[in-house]
Amino acid sequence: MKGLVFKDINQIELQEIEKPMIEKETDAIIRITMTTICGSDIHLYHGHMQTTPGYTLGHEYVGIVEEVGGAVKSLKKGDRVIGPAAPFCGYCENCKNGHIAQCKNGGVHGSGKEFGNIPGTHAEFSRVPFADNNLIKVPENLKDEQVLFVGDVLSTGYFGAEKCRIQPGDDVVIFGAGPVGLCAVQAAKLFSPKNIILVGRKNQLRLDIGKKLGATHIIRTDKDDLFKSISEITKGKGADAAIEASGSEIALQQAVKCVGISGRVSLVGLYSKNIELPLPEIFMKNISIEMGLGYLGHMQRLLNMVESGQIDMTSLITHRMKLDDIVKAYDIFENNQNEVVKVVVTP
């Protein structure tokens, strides 16, 4: 089969590789019908996250069950499914306590032996461990594009909105108009805030999509006075909540400064190094900060909201390409950010 292999830092190649096989009775083999490129794939590719080369990349997917292990009870060949980017066992101590992102037996698709050695989804087939626990059947009336983002960026955006405890009537600021930030816009809308303020820089395409997804105000930091604008929108009190989805030190500092007394800040952007925080201000304003890996346990809930029409993230899709062109797709995704949000890849 074909698969995109991370050969070495800054080196990827579509190659003929071995089709994954059932390794444990709880596994399932999935024929990938749609996948997409994530920012963390780029981090791996460039060595920003250190892993041992030689594995297939990719962790977001829709697929068809090709084969199941003997212990798999809820799935059969031919089922159309989605699953989380980071499969979890469901029975270890961490999972039982709700910390599925820290599962002792799980890992992340397409991230090498350092992250569980689970095959990537930028391939024709992939293996999913703990299949009963992780794979969710897709309703027949939904297309692949409608459900593709449920298992990663949508779950992460929802986690960001959930963690800053948005209340009806709140003013919410979202920093970062990338895929996660845009998903956070749609997720925040579910909690009935008064205003959703999306903050970005230069990339007007993404900000325009954010407006369509539910942002009531757009602030471009390369043109607008950020704090003056937020003060005007919130009538001087500052935001009630902020979501930082860019992984930028400056954006995190701005998120803390833009919230008012007892403001809530949630962090879902990935930070690759230590950063500075304005701790005196955080302390004096009684600001609370929540952070962590996105929780992937709400997939069924989010899928239900996609089916009911409450969530529609298909506007993130700006490019559609074939697996044969996936190396080119990586280049487009990384180097044409003014024109691309998400690239959908099909066999």
UniProtKB/TrEMBL annotation:
| InterPro entries xref list | ADH-like_C (IPR013149), ADH-like_N (IPR013154), ADH_Zn_CS (IPR002328), ER (IPR020843), GroES-like_sf (IPR011032), NAD(P)-bd_dom_sf (IPR036291)
UniProt keywords (A-Z) are:
Metal-binding, Oxidoreductase, Zinc
Does the record bear Chaperone in its keywords? no
Instruction: Report the SUPFAM superfamilies cross-referenced here.
Output: GroES-like, NAD(P)-binding Rossmann-fold domains
Domain Enoyl reductase (ER) spans what residues?
7-345
User: Which Pfam families does the UniProt record give?
Assistant: ADH_N, ADH_zinc_N
State the needed cofactors, names only: Zn(2+)
Similarity annotation: Belongs to the zinc-containing alcohol dehydrogenase family.
Q: Which PANTHER family match?
A: ZINC-TYPE ALCOHOL DEHYDROGENASE-LIKE
Descriptive protein name: Alcohol dehydrogenase
Q: Which organism is it from?
A: Tissierella carlieri
